[in-house]
Design a protein that fits this description.
5-stranded parallel beta sheet, 6-stranded mixed beta sheet
């Protein structure tokens, strides 16, 4: 696949660039700062050298005084380098470090904040539909996801099948993140049933036959590896009792499909619906991140069962979005949005579905999901995606 421009803006100061493997961090950096000094810790020889002597970084940077940008790939593999980075930034105020990582666990333990606010945190997400333009196909995205390394492969399905295994071997096992690799592998399959659903750690623990504390630790490992994230419930000025549990999403719809086992007892509509909701979730998350977090993402669900899939809330945004994996609209599809509007009349409502017509039904705009995703662009309000 040819190199595709990304929406992530390059900033002038030092920053961490985090994102799951295969999302295109290194490719993007080679295009943006190709003349920078690159240190790739995935290179076994360099990894051993810097692990043995982290101060080597100081020698290398001082030995290249004309370089004003230094890229360290997979910084979490040698978090001790952060001390050297901190010293060098103090020494040369105009020196910019770009530190990529596919895991935050060791960085957090090493004290990523030791850079004292001198480094921003940026994230690289799977492709957005608007980045792909005419290359975007909704059905393909639901089946294969939008991870650049997967889409660029000769056999995307094979790469997807091996994606989780890659993490198990190169991140979980190699870094000793869990004690029982077999139990964690079973957990990966079990957690796929929680994608786009309320996260119930106790149920996960029972399915994996581990203690609740262990299951909670497994969820945290997934989040640290940037493979999953939790969506919190919207509770501001709540007029009704809302649920306490967050929802869980795997970071990419294709990765979800690769982990989710399907058998005779599974309804295809249920799996497809979770994949579609997850695809919208990853787009909204990328839109918010690339836009500088000017809006936050939530969901809404009352204890009585009224629910809205997504709430986008910020100084200039207040939207309730519902996602339906159906080509037809039914009156009951609007119930959650109507309930939310009763409690929050300041909000705007949008229903995304698999049909081809954009319609206004009972005051709610109903829009083809593919059209919305294609029009969703960072730094532009959601209303621009509607047209």
């Amino acid at each position: 696949m040819e190199v595709i421009d990304r929406f992530l803006p390059l900033v002038g100061q030092s920053f961490f660039l985090l994102g799951p493997r295969g999302t295109g961090k290194s490719t993007w950096l080679r295009r943006q700062v190709g003349q920078a000094l690159f240190i790739d810790l995935l290179d076994p020889q360099l990894y051993r050298a810097y692990q043995a002597r982290p101060e080597r970084l100081i020698e290398v940077v001082r030995g290249n005084p004309s370089q004003d940008t230094v890229v360290i790939d997979e910084i979490q593999k040698v978090p001790e380098l952060l001390d050297a980075v901190h010293l060098l930034i103090e020494e040369r105020s105009r020196l910019r470090f770009i530190l990529t990582g596919s895991s935050t666990r060791k960085l957090r333990r090493a004290g990523v904040n030791l850079l004292a606010g001198r480094a921003l945190r940026k994230t690289m997400h799977p492709f957005m539909a608007a980045e792909l333009g005419d290359r975007f196909r909704l059905e393909q995205a639901l089946r294969q996801g939008l991870v650049p390394a997967v889409l660029a492969a000769m056999d995307p399905e094979e790469v997807l099948r091996g994606y989780a295994t890659l993490y198990l071997k190169e991140e979980v096992q190699a870094e000793g993140l869990v004690r029982n690799l077999g139990a964690f592998a079973r957990f990966l399959e079990a957690v796929s049933f929680s994608h786009a659903s309320l996260l119930n750690v106790s149920n996960l623990a029972r399915e994996c036959q581990v203690e609740r504390k262990v299951a909670e630790g497994y969820v945290e490992v997934l989040e640290d590896l940037l493979l999953a994230w939790r969506l919190q419930v919207f509770s501001r000025r709540a007029a009704r009792a809302v649920v306490a549990h967050p929802k869980l999403y795997l970071f990419d719809s294709g990765v979800f499909r690769s982990l989710r086992p399907i058998g005779p007892l599974d309804r295809p509509q249920e799996v497809d619906g979770a994949a579609l909701e997850g695809l919208v979730a990853q787009h909204l998350r990328a839109w918010a991140a690339y836009s500088g977090e000017r809006a936050n993402l939530f969901f809404w669900r009352t204890r009585s069962g009224s629910e809205v899939d997504f709430v986008v809330y910020g100084p200039d945004e207040f939207w309730a979005l519902e996602v339906k994996n159906s080509t037809q609209l039914r009156t009951q599809d609007l119930h959650g949005l109507a309930a939310f509007h009763d409690d929050y009349p300041e909000s705007r409502q949008l229903l995304l579905y698999r049909g081809e017509e954009q319609r206004l039904v009972r005051g709610v705009l109903c829009m083809p999901c593919e059209r919305f995703l294609r029009r969703l662009v960072p730094f532009e309000p959601l209303s621009r995606a509607i047209g």
